Amino acid sequence: MTEPDQSEHKERRYPRVKARILYRPPKVFGQKRQIPDISLGGMRIYSNKLLQQGSTHNIEIFLPSGQTAMVLARVAWVDAYPKDSDALYDIGLEFIHIPSNIADDLKSVLESTPSDK
Predict the structure, then answer these.
(1) Which of 8, 42, 50, 66 meets the CB 3.0–4.6 Å disulfide criterion with 94?
(2) What is the pLDDT of residue 7?
């Protein structure tokens, strides 16, 4: 999938990495998806459902250790893909709240994964 140009998005406080972390989209049960890239500040997802910029969502994430957590995230940006793409939208989510019991484990996973930069 060709990714839209991310240069218009503000500079990130945390580097994004391609960690082996899964997520479950809002209001979808049973289906887990790979997170394309994630940082302590947020994550990117691909979706066929449009999420409105500024809206907030509870997203379930699944760490490689088997731990799961519900995080609260705000839609920071949305880019549309062409209709013949695997997904219709490229969505940036900014974490608003990560439970303290998962934050350290997430940080460890991210620190052990090479940065994309």
Answers:
(1) 42
(2) 47
Q: Is residue 70 part of a domain?
A: yes
Burial class (CB in 10 A: 0-12, 13-18, 19+), 41: middle
State pLDDT tens for residues 59-112. Answer: 999 999 888 889 999 999 999 999 899 999 999 999 999 998 888 899 898 888
Which pair of tokens denotes residue 25? 């989209």
Evaluate whether residue 26 is within a structural domain. Answer: yes
Beta bridge partners of 60: 24, 70
Sign of CA dihedral 28, 32, 35, 41: positive
Q: Kindly state whether residue 114 falls inside one of the protein's structural domains.
A: no
CA 68 to centroid of chain Cα atoms: 14
